[in-house]
C-alpha cells in the first residue's frame, strides 16, 4: 500500500477547474467472449486536489489505478493482473480486459471508476453483460405453408433463443419487402398478392443475423375474366359462345359458375360457358359471369354483346342466263329489324356495273332481279349488294353464260334457286318455232307425263294446266315458265325429272333435268361430346363432326381452334394436343347452301408444369449470407403439384423437395448452378436454372488495436477469412492536431490467410493523438475497419529521471514498461522485416489481379 501512496504522489498537476460526476462507458454494449473489452472513465480533478488519476473497481474491489504525471506521462498500477490500462487524453482513462481474459468470469460483474483521493467523485455502477448471439429462430405457428384466408388477420410470433443479448432486432419481410420491425409478434392481414410468397423473420444482434421462413398459402375468391373479350360484336342469326375463365383462385376447385344479365338478379346459366344458339336483336345486353370456390364468389366480370344491325348478307345466290338477259335470284334471312335495299352488280371483264333495279329486301324472303341487254355467247359474273344506314354487305359471286339464239331443234330448261321446301320454284323453258310450224306453244313433262302447256296466240298468253299443283307464266316471246307455288313445293317434288318440248313435235325438246330439293343443316354435334374435351399434351384424339344425314348438298366441314382454321372438309379431325391450345375453343362449322351451323367445345389440355426460379436466374450473394430461392410454377394443368425437386447442375442427387431451397450460410463452395423441377400427374417439368455467384469480397479487418510508442505506433488486427481469394491490407492514419485527411502508411500486407497482422507506422509527432483504420482490398472491392486511437508519447523529462527515491522505486515499474516496449519494438522490427520481405515477394509475383488491387489502393489515398 505504501508503494501506491508513493505512486500517487507523482500524479501532481496544477489544480483542475472542472467538477462533477464521472462517466464510465464500455467499448461495446455487451462484451464478446475472447475479444478485447474496455471501460473508459471520463474524469475531472476535484477542487483542491492535484492528483490526475482514477481508480477502477470491480464488484466493489479495487483492481487498478491509472493516471498521468505532471509531465503528461501515462502510468498505471495493477492490483489485478487480468487487466491493462491506457491514458486516452488528459482526463480520460481506460481499463482494458484483454481478449485472453475476456471469459465467463466477467459476466455480470459490476464496475465503477472513482477519484482516488475523494470517493465522492465517482461514476455510477455499470453492469458488464456478455453478448449471446442469436443461434436459433422459429415461427409460431410453424406451418409450412402457412394457410390464411384473404382479409383475415393472424398473429405470427418470431421466437429467438431466450438468452440472446443484446435483445435482437426483429425484422419482418414478405418476399423482399419489409413489413415490420422491432415486434416479436406480427399481426398479419393478408392479401391475395401475398399468395406463394415467403414470410421471413430476421433476428439480428451484434450484426449477426439468423432467420426463419415459411411460404404463404393465401385462400381467396376466384378472379375471373371473359373470353373472347369484354366486348363482342355479333350479327343476328349467328351462334355465340362466351366463356367465364378463372385465371386465379385458391383453392383452385370451382364449385359453381353463375351467368346473369346486368340489372337483373336472375341466374340464366351455371356452366363455365354461355351459348346463344341464334343471336337476335334482343340480345343487345351486358352479361355478367361469376365463379365460386370454398372461400366465396368472385367479383363479376362483364361482357357487352353488341348486336350489329348491319344488313343481312344475301345467300343462296343463283344466276340464270337466257337470250341476252339473266335473272339473279337470292335469299335474304333477316330479322326484319331495319330497312335495307339490294341491287345487282355484273361484269363480263373486271369492273362491275350496277343493274338499274333496286329491291327493298327488308323482309325474310327470296328476291330476284333481271339484268337485260347482255351480249350473247358471253360469260357474265354477278353479285348482290345490300345496304342500310349502318353499312353494306356483298354476296359471293356467281357466273353463267348468256346464250345466243337457239339452233334449230334446241330447247333449254332451267330451274330457279334455291330449291327449298315451302319456297316457290319455277322451271323456265326457252324454245324456238320450227320451220313450217306456226304454233308458239310448249308443254312441260314431269316424270314422262305432261302436266300442262303454255304459249302465245296472236300475242296473247294462254295456258292449259293438266295438274292443279302448277301455275304458268309467259316470260316473253319463246320463253315460258312453270311455277311450283310455295304450298306445292313439298317432298312430292323431290327427285322428279322434268323437260319441256315443242307442242307440235316431241322431237324438239330440252334435256331431262332432275329436281333435287335441298335440305339445310339442322344440327351439328361433336363426338366425343365432352365439354371441356380433356387431352394430354402430345396425344392424338379423333374428333368427329356429325351433321343431319339428309343435309343436301353435302355440307363442307371446317375446323377451328379459337379463330385459327386448322382443317377443311374433313368430318373427322385427328387433333394432336399442345399446351398452347389449353382453354381455347375447338369449333366445327358445317356449311351448305351458304348456310352455316357450328358446334364447339373447350379444350382442357393436360401438360407438365412450366417452372421458373425466383428471385432471378442469376444471384449475387456474399459469403456468410442466408439465401432462399423459390421454384415458381408458371403454368400447369392439372395445377396440383405433387413434388418439387432441387438439383445441382451436373449432379443426379436431389438436394431438396420443397418449393423453396435455402442455404443458411453461403460459402465459396456454393458457387454453382441450381435447378428446380416440379411434377404433376402428367409428368415432371423441364428444369429451370439459377446461377449462384458468390461474391468473394475481402474479409473485414476485426479486433483492431493501436499501440502508441515514442514517435511511432503499432497497429494490430485479425483477419478472419476463408482464404478463398488473394487480398491485401494497409493502414491509414490521421492526427487530431493537424485535422488532415487520412494518409496511407507505406507497408502493404498480404492478408489472405486467417491470421493476426500488424503494421508499424513511423515518424509520428510526439504528444499527439492519432486515429488509425485498416483497409483491405481485392479484385472485387474493399472494406474498412472501425477506427481506433492512441497518443504518441514524447521523451521523458530529465527532472523525472533524477527525482527522489520514489522515482527510483517507480523507475523500477517504468523499467518494466520500457522492457515491454523494448519487446514490442523488437517484435515490431521483426514484423517490419517480415512485411518488407512479404512486400518484396509480393512485388515479384504481381499479376493482373494484384495490379487491380494496387489500383484500388492508390484510389483510396483520397480518403
Sheet/helix structural class: mainly beta
Average pLDDT score: 82
First-last Cα distance: 50 Å
Give a short account of the largest sheet.
7 strands, mixed
Low-confidence stretches: 1-19, 796-863
Number of strands: 66
Structural write-up:
By secondary structure, the chain is mainly β. Strands 12, 14, 15, 17, 18, 20 and 23 form a seven-stranded mixed beta sheet that branches. The longest helix is centred in the last third of the chain and has 40 residues, at 805-844. The protein is rod-shaped, with a radius of gyration of 52 Å. Mean pLDDT is 82; it is low at 1-19 and 796-863.
Annotate the secondary structure layout:
Blueprint: H1 2-8, E1 23-26, E2 37-42, E3 53-58, E4 61-68, E5 74-78, E6 84-89, E7 92-97, E8 109-115, E9 118-122, E10 126-128, E11 137-140, E12 146-149, E13 153-160, E14 169-174, E15 177-181, E16 185-189, E17 198-205, E18 208-227, E19 231-234, E20 240-250, E21 256-261, E22 267-269, E23 273-276, E24 286-292, E25 301-307, E26 315-321, E27 326-332, E28 341-347, E29 353-360, E30 365-371, E31 378-388, E32 391-394, E33 398-402, E34 412-415, E35 425-430, E36 440-446, E37 449-457, E38 460-465, E39 471-476, E40 479-484, E41 496-502, E42 505-509, E43 513-515, E44 524-527, E45 533-536, E46 540-547, E47 556-561, E48 564-568, E49 572-576, E50 585-592, E51 595-614, E52 618-621, E53 627-637, E54 643-648, E55 654-656, E56 660-663, E57 673-679, E58 688-694, E59 701-708, E60 713-719, E61 728-735, E62 743-750, E63 755-761, E64 768-778, E65 781-784, E66 788-792, H2 798-801, H3 805-844, H4 848-859
Amino acid at each position: 500500500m505504501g508503494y501506491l501512496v508513493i505512486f500517487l504522489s507523482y500524479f501532481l498537476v496544477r489544480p483542475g477547474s472542472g467538477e462533477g460526476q464521472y462517466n464510465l462507458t464500455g467499448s461495446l454494449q455487451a462484451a464478446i467472449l475472447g475479444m478485447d473489452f474496455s471501460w473508459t472513465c471520463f474524469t475531472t480533478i476535484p477542487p483542491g486536489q492535484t492528483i490526475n488519476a482514477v481508480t477502477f473497481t470491480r464488484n466493489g474491489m479495487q483492481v487498478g489505478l491509472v493516471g498521468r504525471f505532471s509531465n503528461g506521462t501515462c502510468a498505471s498500477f495493477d492490483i489485478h493482473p487480468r487487466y491493462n490500462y491506457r491514458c486516452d487524453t488528459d482526463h480520460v482513462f481506460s481499463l482494458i480486459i484483454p481478449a485472453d481474459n475476456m471469459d465467463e468470469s466477467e459476466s455480470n460483474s459490476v464496475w465503477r471508476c472513482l477519484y482516488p483521493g475523494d470517493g465522492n467523485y465517482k461514476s455510477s455502477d455499470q453492469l458488464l453483460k456478455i453478448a449471446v448471439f442469436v443461434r436459433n429462430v422459429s415461427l409460431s405457428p410453424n406451418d409450412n405453408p402457412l394457410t390464411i384466408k384473404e382479409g383475415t388477420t393472424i398473429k405470427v410470433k418470431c421466437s429467438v433463443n431466450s438468452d440472446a443479448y443484446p435483445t435482437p432486432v426483429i425484422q419482418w419481410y414478405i418476399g423482399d419487402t419489409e413489413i415490420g420491425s422491432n415486434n416479436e409478434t406480427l399481426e398479419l392481414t393478408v392479401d391475395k398478392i401475398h399468395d406463394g410468397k415467403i414470410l421471413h423473420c430476421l433476428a439480428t444482434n451484434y450484426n449477426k443475423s439468423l432467420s426463419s421462413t415459411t411460404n404463404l398459402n393465401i385462400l381467396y375468391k376466384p378472379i375471373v375474366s371473359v373470353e373472347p373479350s369484354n366486348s363482342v360484336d355479333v350479327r343476328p342469326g349467328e351462334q355465340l359462345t362466351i366463356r367465364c375463365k378463372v385465371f386465379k383462385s385458391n383453392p383452385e376447385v370451382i364449385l359453381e359458375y353463375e351467368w346473369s344479365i346486368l340489372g337483373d338478379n336472375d341466374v340464366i346459366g351455371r356452366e363455365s360457358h354461355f351459348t346463344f344458339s341464334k343471336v337476335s336483336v334482343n340480345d343487345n345486353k351486358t352479361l355478367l359471369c361469376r365463379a365460386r370456390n370454398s372461400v366465396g364468389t368472385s367479383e363479376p366480370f362483364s361482357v357487352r354483346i353488341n348486336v350489329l344491325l348491319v344488313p343481312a348478307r344475301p345467300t343462296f345466290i343463283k344466276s340464270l342466263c337466257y337470250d341476252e338477259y339473266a335473272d339473279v335470284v337470292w335469299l335474304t334471312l333477316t330479322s326484319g329489324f331495319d330497312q335495307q335495299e339490294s341491287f345487282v352488280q355484273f361484269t363480263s371483264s373486271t369492273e362491275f356495273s350496277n343493274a338499274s333495279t333496286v329491291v327493298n329486301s327488308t323482309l325474310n324472303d327470296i328476291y330476284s332481279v333481271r339484268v337485260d341487254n347482255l351480249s350473247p355467247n358471253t360469260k357474265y359474273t354477278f353479285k348482290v349488294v345490300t345496304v342500310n344506314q349502318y353499312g353494306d354487305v356483298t354476296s359471293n359471286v356467281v357466273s353463267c353464260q348468256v346464250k345466243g339464239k337457239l339452233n334449230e331443234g334446241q330447247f333449254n330448261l332451267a330451274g330457279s334457286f334455291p330449291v327449298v321446301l315451302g319456297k316457290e320454284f319455277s322451271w323456265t323453258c326457252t324454245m324456238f318455232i320450227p320451220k313450217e310450224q306456226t304454233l308458239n306453244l310448249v308443254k312441260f313433262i314431269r316424270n314422262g307425263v305432261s302436266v300442262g302447256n303454255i304459249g302465245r296466240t296472236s300475242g296473247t298468253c294462254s295456258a292449259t294446266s293438266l295438274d292443279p299443283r302448277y301455275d304458268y307464266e309467259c316470260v316473253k316471246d319463246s320463253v315460258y315458265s312453270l311455277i311450283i307455288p310455295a304450298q306445292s313445293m313439298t317432298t312430292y317434288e323431290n327427285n322428279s325429272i322434268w323437260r319441256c318440248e315443242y307442242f307440235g313435235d316431241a322431237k324438239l325438246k330440252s334435256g331431262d333435268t332432275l329436281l333435287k330439293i335441298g335440305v339445310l343443316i339442322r344440327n351439328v354435334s361433336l363426338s366425343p361430346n365432352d365439354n371441356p374435351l380433356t387431352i394430354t399434351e402430345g396425344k392424338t384424339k379423333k374428333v368427329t363432326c356429325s351433321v343431319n344425314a339428309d343435309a343436301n348438298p353435302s355440307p363442307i366441314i371446317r375446323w377451328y381452334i379459337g379463330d385459327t382454321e386448322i382443317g377443311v372438309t374433313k368430318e373427322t379431325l385427328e387433333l394432336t394436343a399442345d399446351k398452347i391450345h389449353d382453354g381455347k375453343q375447338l369449333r366445327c362449322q358445317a356449311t351448305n347452301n351458304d348456310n352455316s351451323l357450328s358446334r364447339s367445345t373447350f379444350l382442357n389440355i393436360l401438360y407438365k408444369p412450366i417452372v421458373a426460379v425466383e428471385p432471378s436466374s442469376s444471384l449475387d450473394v456474399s459469403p456468410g449470407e442466408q439465401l432462399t430461392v423459390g421454384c415458381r410454377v408458371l403454368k400447369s394443368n392439372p395445377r396440383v403439384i405433387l413434388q418439387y425437386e432441387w438439383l445441382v447442375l451436373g449432379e443426379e442427387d436431389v438436394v431438396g423437395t420443397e418449393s423453396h431451397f435455402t442455404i443458411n450460410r453461403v460459402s465459396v463452395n456454393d458457387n454453382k448452378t441450381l435447378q428446380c423441377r416440379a411434377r404433376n400427374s402428367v409428368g415432371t417439368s423441364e428444369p429451370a436454372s439459377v446461377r449462384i455467384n458468390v461474391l468473394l469480397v475481402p474479409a473485414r479487418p476485426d479486433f483492431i488495436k493501436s499501440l502508441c510508442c515514442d514517435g511511432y505506433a503499432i497497429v494490430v488486427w485479425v483477419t478472419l477469412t476463408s482464404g478463398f481469394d488473394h487480398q491485401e491490407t494497409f493502414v491509414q492514419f490521421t492526427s487530431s492536431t493537424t485535422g488532415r485527411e487520412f494518409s496511407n502508411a507505406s507497408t502493404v500486407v498480404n492478408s489472405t490467410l486467417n491470421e493476426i497482422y500488424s503494421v508499424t507506422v513511423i515518424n509520428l509527432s510526439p504528444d499527439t493523438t492519432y486515429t488509425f483504420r485498416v483497409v483491405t482490398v481485392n479484385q472485387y472491392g474493399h472494406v474498412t475497419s472501425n477506427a481506433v486511437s492512441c497518443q504518441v508519447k514524447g521523451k521523458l523529462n530529465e527532472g523525472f529521471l533524477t527525482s527522489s527515491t520514489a522515482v527510483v522505486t517507480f523507475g523500477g515499474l517504468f523499467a518494466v514498461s520500457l522492457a515491454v516496449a523494448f519487446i514490442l519494438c523488437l517484435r515490431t522490427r521483426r514484423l517490419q522485416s517480415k512485411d518488407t520481405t512479404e512486400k518484396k515477394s509480393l512485388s515479384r509475383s504481381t499479376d493482373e489481379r494484384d495490379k487491380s488491387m494496387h489500383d484500388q489502393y492508390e484510389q483510396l489515398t483520397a480518403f
